Amino acid sequence: SAVISQKPSRDICQRGTSLTIQCQVDSQVTMMFWYRQQPGQSLTLIATANQGSEATYESGFVIDKFPISRPNLTFSTLTVSNMSPEDSSIYLCSVPSWSGDYNEQFFGPGTRLTVL
Amino acid sequence: GQNIDQPTEMTATEGAIVQINCTYQTSGFNGLFWYQQHAGEAPTFLSYNVLDGLEEKGRFSSFLSRSKGYSYLLLKELQMKDSASYLCAPMDSNYQLIWGAGTKLIIKP
Description:
The structure holds two protein chains of two kinds. Chain A is mostly beta strands. Chain A has no helices and eleven strands. In chain A, strands 2, 4, 5, 6, 9, 10 and 11 form a seven-stranded mixed beta sheet that branches. Helices cover 0% and strands 53% of the residues of chain B. Chain B is an all-beta fold. The A-B interface holds A 40-45, 92, 101-110, 112 and B 4, 31, 33, 40-45, 48, 50, 87, 95-97, 99-102.
């Protein structure tokens, strides 16, 4: 299993500003995922962050808007840049952890972002 | 394309049984996960199926038919705390989870 913490848990930000979300895992993991979940919607994968390489972004997400850092095997940050109200969402980091039979994905508690 | 279909909302009575269905189309298949998500919280793992058939885990069971692209989650002896969203998530050939929008389950006394 994996225990994941995120900071901040929530924030209210002004349009045009940026927010950096931190994700800390209690064990070393190669892959970390960043998701966005808008109210009542499915989880949408933003990017996959592997330590030692550039993050891989999904269609519709770009590095300039969502820069990611992955300085070591237990930590990652996601920055939401030049925010607009459309960025209001819950942002979740996730890591896979091998259970012996399959890779279960564990999620952090999420960061609830409101952009005014 | 990749697609997940599950009911938006279901209502059931405390103590009863409910079945949440999920149909999926993915590029390749490496198993299917069910997650539970309470309002305002992160998803938590419930079950994983990679072979056809039923997997039972306490009050929860999950069924998979790969040929039909179909899975269901069966919840027995419903409790008020089971009120949550249930997310169906098959894993594609790239080992990436494809998330459904979830089924909001409302339990009434």
